Amino acid sequence: MDDYQDRVTITTPEGLEVALVLAGPATRIVAALLDTLVKLVAATFVVSIAVGIGYGILGDAGATIAVAVGAFAFLFLWDPWLEQVTDGRPPGKAMLGLRVVRDDGGRVDLASSLVRNLLRIVEYPLLYLPGIAMLLAHPRHQRIGDLAAGTYVVRERRPVAVAAERAPVAPPDAGPVPALDLVALDAHDRATVRRFAAQAGTLAEAERARLATLIAGPLRRRVGGVPPGTADEELVLAVAHRLG
After folding, report:
1. Inter-axis angle of helices 110-118 and 25-85, to 10 degrees?
2. Whole-prediction pTM
3. N or C: which end of the chain has fewer CB atoms below 10 A?
4. Is pLDDT above 60 for 202?
5. Distance CA 156, CA 143 (A)
6. What would the pLDDT profile of 37-47 be if each residue is shown by its tens digit?
7. What are the residue ranges spanned by the domains of the chain?
8. SS3 of the chain
């Protein structure tokens, strides 16, 4: 599936239209397998400790019940907790450059994480087959949990090491940046960049940074000559300056 088919355009509360690049089914399945492996390792460690302590304090019957309840809670609460502490990038997804976001492009919150992960209860007994079928059939590659929670799994750029002496990107008032190749940008990209630059001075710092990250992701795929380590907002404003 090509880039165009894997994109969804959202409108932010600030009125900006931003294209998110959706993760494909194969990438999501591999990321899920990696995250499941991490969960199994963590569960084995936690259950081993719980068994050792529980049987010594509660006895056989009490410890068995406690371990069963704890294992169930761990199974369904681990993923929401991990999505919160990693800002939607649990280890498997982070390794493949993926992130869970709300369908408005915002950070996945606790309520959304709980809904999308607790619905795995209908997938676990069937070896994830309903989830895999949904990923393959749905045009936006969403599981049942994603549809219920209003979430997407999107592609993010991989972090790039900052060079010791990186080439600076000029701020928007310091003249053009000739190294940037904008030929691949479409009309939507250009309009979004210009609108962000026009509104940037009116936005709160956190909101400006969030929007810059959303816009910069697709730009990095289509703008040539971006120096390593260029910050998201630097890139968006430099492109806006080039566009005039």
Report:
1. 130
2. 0.68
3. C
4. yes
5. 19
6. 998 888 888 77
7. 1-156, 168-239
8. CCCCCCEEEEECCCCCEEEEEECCHHHHHHHHHHHHHHHHHHHHHHHHHHHHHHHHHHHHHHHHHHHHHHHHHHHHHHHHHHHHHCCCCCHHHHHCCEEEEECCCCECCHHHHHHHHHHHHHCHHHCCHHHHHHHHHCCCCCCHHHHHHCEEEEECCCCCCCCCCCCCCCCCCCCCCCCCECCCCCHHHHHHHHHHHHHHHHCCHHHHHHHHHHHHHHHHHHCECCCCCCCHHHHHHHHHHHHC
Please give the mean pLDDT across all residues of the chain. Answer: 80
Instruction: Evaluate if residue 69 carries a pLDDT over 80.
Output: no
pLDDT at 179 over 80: no
pLDDT at residue 138 greater than cutoff 80: yes
Q: Can you tell me which residue has the tokens 């963590």?
A: 42
Say which residues have a Cβ less than 8 Å from residue 58's Cβ, sequence separation at least 6.
Answer: 66
Q: What is the pLDDT of residues 208-236, one digit of tens each?
A: 888 888 888 888 878 888 888 888 888 89
Q: Which residue has the tokens 């997804």?
A: 93
Contact 130, 195 (CB under 8 A): no
- What is the rounded distance in angstroms from the CA atom of residue 191 to the CA atom of residue 214? 14
Place of tokens 């600076």: 168
Contact 121, 80 (CB under 8 A): no
Query: Is residue 63 within 8 Å of residue 51, measured between CB atoms?
Result: yes
